[in-house]
Amino acid sequence: MSIGVAVLCLPWLRWTQPNLPRPIKVNLVFPIVYIIASLFVTIVPMIASPVETGYGCLMILTSVPVYLIFIAWKKKPKPIQQALEINTGIYSGIVPVKLICLLNYTELIAVHEQFEMCGCSTDV
Length: 124
What we know:
This protein has 124 residues and is mainly α. The protein contains 5 helices and no strands.
């Protein structure tokens, strides 16, 4: 959904500001097809399972306050700026490692559950 909205900017800017310099000029057929496909991939799950899709949309919307607080708010008080700088330094090394470990563990659990569902043995 987010990428579809980003691609929507291409025809929008082409129509509203046709004289902007463009390093790469793309035929409008490609973004229009992509936008239609994005709408389809977004709307079909909303119809099939609206509750789960609503949870997903709520998770996406949680990025709005994060953006407003950490990016758009330019005149942050000095203690908040210092805390953000310290946390950025700490988490830039820790979070990617923990995320990779978490994703690998999640994939391992999913594979194990698939084996159990088909009645296969997971003993090594």
